[in-house]
Amino acid sequence: MRVLVVEDEQLLADAVATGLRREAMAVDVVYDGGAALERIGVNDYDVVVLDRDLPVTHGDEVCRKLVDMGLPTRVLMLTAAGDVSDRVEGLELGADDYLPKPFAFSELTARVRALGRRTSVPLPPVLERAGIRLDPNRREVFRGGEEVHLAPKEFAVLEVLMRSEGSVVSAEQLLEKAWDENTDPFTNVVRVTVMTLRRKLGEPPVIVTVPGSGYRI
């Protein structure tokens, strides 16, 4: 899952991004609404965590433009104003969910994951395919009843492949969904991660390489 965090309090923005990355999400961070619109015009995001009171371009305007663009991206709006009228106003702007500050990080993570499941064909919270069981909320993977311990990027790649439901996923798509914009697009990090993931998942191999196209399960 790829997430854009838009928050002008830089310490909070960076803390949220770090926490989401530990949950195996690819996260980009910007600190004003203008920069957010630039990123949204370049990258595909599953979820935007959007502070409402932003400099340059207000969060309300960012939300409106996202809705007008017709993107499948979901918006989780953050604000220090947490009464009912503020929540209603935020949702009427087109936000998909609303979380007042201060918030518990576990709740933020749960809401981001719930929104991420709504960006494509609805899938169950726990994914199962080819004898593999992946629980994104618990960050657990089992094969044949045995737990498989994965690093965050390995987990992220496996989740993208599982969510594709047998479709081929290119290396470029994996890079887009599992890594942030600071990753060198010419690196071999995808190939190396898939190799490590195959080894950890054991025999028989479940990740198939489709020459010239990508990978599938």
TrEMBL record:
Residues 2-116 form the Response regulatory domain. Keywords: DNA-binding, Phosphoprotein. Residues 124-217 form the OmpR/PhoB-type domain. The modification 4-aspartylphosphate is found at residue 51. The keyword Lipid biosynthesis does not apply. InterPro entries: CheY-like_superfamily, OmpR/PhoB-type_DNA-bd, Sig_transdc_resp-reg_receiver, WalR-like, WH-like_DNA-bd_sf. Residues 124-217 bind DNA. The keyword Phosphoprotein applies. It holds the Pfam family Trans_reg_C. Coiled coil: none annotated. Gene3D superfamilies: 3.40.50.2300, 6.10.250.690, Winged helix-like DNA-binding domain superfamily/Winged helix DNA-binding domain (1.10.10.10). This is Response regulator transcription factor. It comes from Streptomyces humicola.
